[in-house]
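Recap quiz, item 2
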Amino acid sequence: MEITLQQTAEFFRENDDFTLICHSNPDGDTLGSGYGLCGVLHIMGKRARIICDDEPSSRFDFLAEAIDPRLTELAKDADETIITIDVADVELIGSLKDRYPDIDLCIDHHVSNKNYAKRLLIDNTSASCAMVVWELIKELISEKQLKETPKARAIAAAIYTGISTDTGCFRYSNTSAKCHHTAAELMAYSFNVTKINYLMFEMKTRERISLEIEAFNGIEFYWGGKCAVISLTRQMLDGIDPEDASNVSSLPKQIEGVSAGIVFKEKKEDVWKISVRTDENINAQTLCSALGGGGHIRAAGCTLKGTLESVKKAVLSEIEKQIDNGVKEL
Amino acid sequence: MEITLQQTAEFFRENDDFTLICHSNPDGDTLGSGYGLCGVLHIMGKRARIICDDEPSSRFDFLAEAIDPRLTELAKDADETIITIDVADVELIGSLKDRYPDIDLCIDHHVSNKNYAKRLLIDNTSASCAMVVWELIKELISEKQLKETPKARAIAAAIYTGISTDTGCFRYSNTSAKCHHTAAELMAYSFNVTKINYLMFEMKTRERISLEIEAFNGIEFYWGGKCAVISLTRQMLDGIDPEDASNVSSLPKQIEGVSAGIVFKEKKEDVWKISVRTDENINAQTLCSALGGGGHIRAAGCTLKGTLESVKKAVLSEIEKQIDNGVKEL
């Protein structure tokens, strides 16, 4: 059942012990939203903790550092309230689903939300879950009350992290005027914007740089440079952090003149995960749907079985159809 | 003489033929500010053109495309009004200084402005010149008047480009709440934010990628990875666009654990231009000042003469002083 912001605030006031669940492969939005809300619940005198099926990347360590561990211990025999944060489908909490079959509240922004929770606070016009949480925070405590606590800066930084990561630092097409308005509000709390965005977008491990070099060294171009292809074999991906590997997906599309950037990653023998990033000349969704996958018009994916040569041929022939058709504006 | 926003608007209303001068090595702020203002002057029925001593990078082509060339022809025997945009020092307009020795108005945001123009509209608290120009535009024409013209989108996009480039897409420490407020206002004109930021921050030439690979292949680490050094010889830089070469300066600092990222570029035999980027553990300004250069605490530079080995030794010994002193927070 969908509930309003006011009803959600009331629900938080009525309960005392909260377990906030972030989605697996946690990103800046689920973690920033979770830690921001957790911090506010602590200010309200509640006990609240964050759990996640996967260990977050160390680049998110600063979010947890501001949390007082004493307040994350739930009361003995507490009637634990279970809340999912930025989780469109309960499957996305992984094995935690078995431990927590009943979700009391889901706070989310995905259009694809499966409506699996008893209560649902959703704004699917919002670019990030963090913006939904920020509106909720403003219902829960006054600006004055927030500003008086030493935690205010960390809470604002957490919410900002969610907005920044889900919009690619205000660059993706989901970036709205509201994203900028909220960022402006948050900046009154003077956290270190530069440091956060360095951690989120600039910092690269040495392993990632090595992988990028290897990837670029083997890059292939088709149709006079309109299509760029990178292939990563299991050998190249061996020992590579999945986060580092996933970031490679955006590389070929960055090259000047490339309308379709494709990355082939070997998952196991003869099984390839394919990421497609396109500009306005190619529809990635149409392309990947034709191959049994899916996604968005500018970013989509599919999984194909076969040798690298055969799966590459399959993908390139789908691209050729669109290049032949001279699709210009999608 | 410093004049107010209102006086500046009045000055524009009183004159008819404007030459707007952008600084040499033009960036998104000087060009975005210039083209945004130029577009508004055309709406007001004025004639206005943009000039610059250097050819802008093709990534800025979209700015000029919205300009009506008929309106950039100044009237015959016009009393040409000369305006510099985002130009702190008249030396920065290069050879145009000889053609235009008298500057009627300078619109700028640099603290270091040399006050060389007859009139000066400056806000040195502003992160970008484009934000100063946007305030001026709001004095010159009403929101209604702007929204009614087909050029509104291009003008908003130009101003946005200035803010985005001068703040590193809202990541640098100069990013203020006002930057986000202005961005939010501009987004009402629904230009293509994704496309602009792709052009400004993501798109890389093949030559740049090759240079990055070569740079990373020769990277050296010192003090257990706290310092990373890239050296670019004249041979490596031969035929490379200066814009591509300059972007390499930020690479070594991106590596996890690196407090000082140094790039040595060979300008001519035994002359090295050195760029230093640091985190809060090292003061780049102190370091480069000690070597006869200067800059900011996180980004500075100097030029040294000698062999690569000798200049590297000089820079590393300055870094060692700070690492030895255990400087933590600057």
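The CA atoms of residues 32 and 158 of chain A lie 4 Å apart.
The mean pLDDT of chain A is 94.
End of item.
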